[in-house]
Amino acid sequence: MPTELGQFPRNRRERVDPEAVGLEPDQKPQRVPGLRREEPAPLAGVSLGYYTRLEQGVSSTSTGSTGCW
């Protein structure tokens, strides 16, 4: 379930025209408006995995219940 924090980058990503941030237009039509998830991640200086987790509201902190010492 996306969090309010996760909704922010998604909403912004959907509003940005790829050409406005210096990306070449794709030859095939996009299924959704705005940038694809893999496009803003390097522009923001983060990995695609981190950007995806942020957008999806997945916590990256450990719960401490792994049993590892």
From TrEMBL:
Protein name as it appears in the record: Uncharacterized protein
Domain of life (superkingdom): Bacteria
Biased composition (Basic and acidic residues): 25-40
Stretches the record annotates as Disordered: 1-42
